[in-house]
What we know:
Layout: H1 9-15, H2 31-34, E1 40-44, H3 50-58, E2 63-68, H4 71-81, E3 89-93, E4 108-114, H5 132-141, E5 142-152, H6 155-168, E6 171-177, H7 193-200, E7 206-212
Parallel strand pairs: 1-2, 1-4, 2-3, 4-5
Antiparallel strand pairs: 5-7, 6-7
Helix pairs in contact: 1-4
Amino acid sequence: xxxxxxxxxxxFIDKSPxxxxxxxxxxxxxxxxxxxxxxxxxxxxxxxxxxIHQLALDHPDINYLGIEMxxxxxxxxxxxxxxxxxxxxxxxxxDAKYLSDIFSSxxxxxxxxxxxxxxxxxRHAKRRLTSPVFLxxxxxxxxxxxxxxxxxxxxxxxxxxxxxxxxxxxxxxxELTYDLHxxxxxxxxxxxxxxxRFVAEGKPICRFVxxxxxx
Length: 215
């Protein structure tokens, strides 16, 4: 369950130096924000930020953007950010359905989707971050050779996502597992807050990695 309505969270975010407040100004030139030409990786729906913070710590030669639309969740990520000395990590309070407003073709080299909202009702399927609508949006911003990594504990969402990838005609399934923590793909895995909890409960974690066909 997502956190909501932390008093003062919106005001805190508005004043934070770690939040990009006018991301459209960096469309096609995100290197200006980071003052370098390092590759850009993004996490969409980053939650409290454990995953992307660890990535930024482990890979100082890569630029990271954490995207989260809920103020109270982003607030928690910013609390973590204030305790670290990083210059390669910024955040956006942003709805991912408008990605094309802030990223140009080739701006992003990797996209991470971790434990996304399953939107279980059929009428909400377009809101799933692995729906055909979003897969098409990712195709518009991902650099040649880039990839998308998706993890979830929700088998129904995962099956839907695999089908969306297969039906797209755009994406190639590079890696696929229905039980990440008992698979050949576990090495180098970084856990999210949700993943820590689900693994402790014995729930299998599904994961795939996809890239564009022919690129």
